[in-house]
Amino acid sequence: MDTFILILIILGLLILIAIPLLLFMRRLGEVKLQGDTLLFVYPFREEKIELGENLLKWNLQKAQFLWIGRVFAVNIQLKERRWRSISSRFYPDQFQKVFQYLEENYSDKRTKDIY
Q: How far is residue 8's CA from residue 93's CA, in Å, rounded to a whole number?
């Protein structure tokens, strides 16, 4: 009985350690704009999006949070009906580059912004 309780306590502690780690790893990555290609680099995979071929539409979303203030995100819908989002909270430098690039080259595919 004592070993069973010890195993439950150890499993509980591992879960408490794993949850914040998984939440952190979910946001860990990098966004790169290389010409007309948007590259999402994650710890175990990488996704390449050709904007000229795959971009269906895009918009800008604004959210107001009490604890972190105003956050913007560029939401990109691809032709496969998948959505990708680039947040100014997690990728501030790349957010600005991607937003300017989309404004200059794909302003005709911009839809109504979400405020």
A: 44
Residue range(s) defining the domain that contains residue 39: 31-109
Torsion of Cα atoms, 62 then 65 then 83 then 81, to 10°: -80
Locate 91 and state its tokens. 């990728």
Number of domains in the chain: 1
Q: Model pTM?
A: 0.70
Bridge-partner residues for 61, per DSSP?
73, 114
pLDDT in tens, 20-69: 776 665 556 788 888 889 998 877 788 899 988 999 999 999 888 888 78
Residue 91 lies in a domain: yes
